[in-house]
Amino acid sequence: AASSDYPLRDVYKRQGKEISAIGRTFEEGYQLMLSIQNLFNIVRSESPSSRLASDPFLIRADRDRVIAGRSLTIPYDTNNSAFHSQQWAEKMLKSLLFSVEGIEEGLIEKDFRHGIRKIWNHLKTRCEDSEHLESSIQAVSSVKMRVRYSKEELELADAVSIFWNSLRVSSYCAEILQRLRQNKADDSKTA
């Protein structure tokens, strides 16, 4: 019998695929957010004098993350979400410059400004397994600062996509920062 003879079976197949896709997306998002939450739990438990706890970009990045996410709830503000998603990823990348590379805040602002692509080009030669982020970096770096005040509203799907790409970049940064902290803890135990 042709599949059109059993239209409900086709509906159930489609629904099953959609449910599976939703499940995979949830699992990915959960793991990405968990790595970011773990980083902030570590930062809160650090001595205020540690480089990670004094990182000026981390707290601002987390604020941008919260604003970007809230802007994706009704009433939607897709431009604001895109702007803060871009800022979130940028600040997490700057956090790597500050905490991992040891570059001071003033030099980061002077040398890199808002250039996500410039920051990424500097970092990717030093970071392992970073190839998978190229498309996310491209998507986030394509967001222009003026989107925040544009009268032309971004489509919801575009704002969500930018948020997800920022989430991927930020989670990657969080994992590196957590490894840095763990390596320092291990070094202090063996010293």
- In terms of per-residue confidence, which ranges show pLDDT below 50 for 5 or more consecutive residues? none
Q: How far apart are the termini? A: 73 Å
Could you estimate the helical fraction of the residues in percent?
over 70%
By DSSP (H or I, 4+ residues per run), the number of helices equals 7
Fraction of residues in β-strands: under 5%
Let me know the average pLDDT. Answer: 90
Largest sheet: none
How many distinct beta strands?
0
Please trace the helix and strand order, writing H or E for each element: HHHHHHH
User: Outline, from the CA principal axes?
Assistant: globular
Radius of gyration: 20 Å
Structural class: mainly alpha
Mind explaining what this structure looks like?
With 191 residues, the chain is an all-alpha fold. Helices cover 72% and strands 0% of the residues. The chain contains 7 helices and no strands. α2 (56-70) packs antiparallel against α3 (78-100), α3 packs parallel to α7 and α6 (134-141) packs across α7 (156-190). The chain is globular and about 75 Å long. It starts with 6 loop residues before the first helix and ends with a helix. The mean pLDDT is 90.
Summarize the model shown.
The chain has 191 residues and is mainly α. The protein has helices spanning 7-45, 56-70, 78-100, 105-112, 116-124, 134-141, 156-190. The longest helix is centred in the N-terminal third of the chain and has 39 residues, at 7-45.
